[in-house]
Amino acid sequence: MSALRKKLGSDYQVVTTTSSSHLKDKRRKRQRFVDKNGRCNVQHGNLGGETSRYLSDLFTTLVDLKWRWNLFIFILTYTVAWLFMASMWWVIAYIRGDLNRAHDEKYTPCVANVYNFPSAFLFFIETEATIGYGHRYITDKCPEGIILFLFQSILGSIVDAFLIGCMFIKMSQPKKRAETLMFSENAAISTRDGKLTLMFRVGNLRNSHMVSAQIRCKLLKSRQTPEGEFLPLDQLELDVGFSTGADQLFLVSPLTICHVIDIKSPFYELSQQSMQTEQFEIVVILEGIVETTGMTCQARTSYTEDEVLWGHRFFPVISLEEGFFKVDYSQFHATFEVPTSSSSAKEQDEALLMSSPLMAPSLCNSGEKNSSLDRLELLEDPESTTKLPAKLQKMTGSYGLPRKLLRMSSTTSEMTYSLRELPMKLQRISSVPGVSEEMQVSKTTKITTEAISKSVADLPPKLQRMAGGGGRMDGHLPPKLRKMNSDRFT
Q1: For residue 61, what are the CA distances in angstroms to 49, 65, 160?
Q2: What is the 3-state secondary structure of the chain?
Q3: Which of 68, 298, 341, 464 has the fewest CB atoms in 10 Å of its CB?
Q4: Pairing of strands 210-224, 308-310
Q5: How far apart are CA 245 and CA 248, in angstroms?
Q6: Please, what is the end-to-end C-alpha distance for the chain in angstroms?
Q7: What is the mean pLDDT of residues 296-321?
Q8: Strands 308-310 and 187-192
Q9: Which residue has the higher pLDDT, 335 or 396?
């Protein structure tokens, strides 16, 4: 029995080891959408009749071809054109009979010293390349030769412009410039400035700068919508400083690009444990203008989930020397471990909120304080009133409360919240009915009496006696003015 258990245990251990190694090999051989060198692993198939679109843009098609096909087409086109034009000169000489009378000194041929096809081919090469040895030339007794010569010049110019232009554009493409733009082999996730951050590094090996360098990041991940639709390689944007301008790079020395994992990030719920089961790919695109040529260059790379190191940080590569800064590219890809929580950014935010319970009531009170004001602004705004249901619009339109009363109610609510912040003894005093009203009335009466007494004391003696006499002031007025006063105040 024990031998059977040992055998089963060994078999289980072998199976477990085999399955784990198989998973590792599968993870290692997982198909990438973008290679580390920037090449996209996409092939277009079953185009059907759409292949004719490539011929409509023949110049771009030739530029996009590989070098071996470009050289083959270049040599083939010139060879065919030269043989065709040489054959045309030979045909003219054959039709006119110049081949049989080539050595007759009294006869004037179309092209002098053309005896056979090789001599006709040499004449065409000398004319096309503007070599002009002077031994073979066109005579004025051959109008068809003059017409063919004009056609040859036009056709040769077109072929030269097309093929030489294609080769020049292909040679001047800034694809090789991207070879001197470096990306770190791995990305890292650690805490920076108190926030969980995804980081990777970029560098420029040349002394010439990348003008208007800009970096973008895309997250490729398959997902399923709530409606059941499956989206393979769904593309999501990763913010690397678009809102703050940090995506515009001054790429003189290696830079560390950061993506803050917050509530807007697709990695907000990603933890160290869940990353082991996730499958995603981060595509990094660096664009800029080559300073020497003025052409736009683009460099690409990608990071899969097994190339993202949790709890790591990049080594510094810049040091200050005597009169300059030195960049050590031997540490460009190197990282080291730092203490980092294995939980996701969402779990860290929830834990931080739970660790400070006093923040929740203040947030609730502030929300309740502003709710009355928000409701008041909502009722005062005619545009927002139209957004209400029809029944509420009718109530606010015909049976609504006056705005003054609404403001009074909002003021009362604000006073209530302000009373909550007072000590308990003052709250009990303020909560007694009529106390606050009497204090306000007495205070207002006192202020009014003092203001009137002060204003009367500032008057001249005669006017003081008139003001003190109450209604005697009208007695000093003419009858007509007294009547006007009485009509005005009645």
Answers
A1: 16, 6, 17
A2: CHHHHHHHHHHHHHHHHHHHHHHHHHHHCCCCCECCCCCECCCCCCCHHHHHHHHHCHHHHHHHCCHHHHHHHHHHHHHHHHHHHHHHHHHHHHHHCCCCCCCCCCCCCCECCCCCHHHHHHHHHHHHCCCCCCCCCECCCCHHHHHHHHHHHHHHHHHHHHHHHHHHHHHCCCCHHHHHEEECCCEEEEEECCEEEEEEEEEECCCCCEEEEEEEEEEEEEEECCCCCEEEEEEEEECCCCCCCCCEECCCCCEEEEEECCCCCCCCCCCCCHHHCCCCEEEEEEEEEECCCCCEEEEEEEEEHHHEEECEEECCCEEECCCCEEECHHHCCCEEECCCCCCCHHHHHHHHHHHCCCHHHHHHHHHHHHHHHHHHHHHHCHHHHHCCCHHHHHHHHHCCCCHHHHHHHHHHHHHHHHHHCCCHHHHHHHCCCCHHHHHHHHHHHHHHHHHHHHHHHCCCHHHHHHHHCHHHHHHHCCHHHHHHHHHHHC
A3: 68
A4: unpaired
A5: 6
A6: 120
A7: 93
A8: parallel
A9: 335
For 345-362, how does the pLDDT look when each residue is reduced to its tens digit (9 = 90+)?
A: 999 999 988 886 555 444
Judged by DSSP in three states, 455 sits in helix
Q: Which residue has the higher pLDDT, 477 or 407?
A: 477
User: Could you give the CA distance from residue 67 to residue 166 in angstroms, rounded to a whole number?
Assistant: 11
Given its phi and psi angles, is residue 228 left (phi above 0), alpha (psi -120 to 50 degrees) or beta? left
Q: In the predicted model, is pLDDT for residue 109 greater than 70?
A: yes
Tell me the average pLDDT across 361-381: 45
Given a cut of 70, whether residue 218 has pLDDT beyond it is yes
Report whether pLDDT(4) > 50.
no
Partners of 303 in the beta sheet?
282
- Quick one: three-class SS letters along 345-404? HHHHHHHHHHHCCCHHHHHHHHHHHHHHHHHHHHHHCHHHHHCCCHHHHHHHHHCCCCHH
Q: Hey, what are 307's tokens?
A: 């190339």
Q: Could you tell me which residue, 164 or 47, shows the higher pLDDT?
A: 164
Return the closest-CA partner of residue 466 out of 451, 476, 478, 480. 476
- ∠ CA 90-95-98, nearest 5°, is 70
CB-CB contact of 288 with 211 (8 Å): yes
Which of 131-145, 164-178, 337-351, 387-401: highest mean pLDDT? 337-351
Checking if the pLDDT of 261 tops 90, the result is yes
Confidence of residue 114 (pLDDT cuts 50, 70, 90): confident
Question: Global pTM?
Answer: 0.59
- Residue 368 pLDDT greater than 70, yes or no: no
Beta bridge partners of 181: 204
**Those residues with Cβ within 8 angstroms of residue 405's Cβ, 6 or more apart along the chain or in another chain:** none
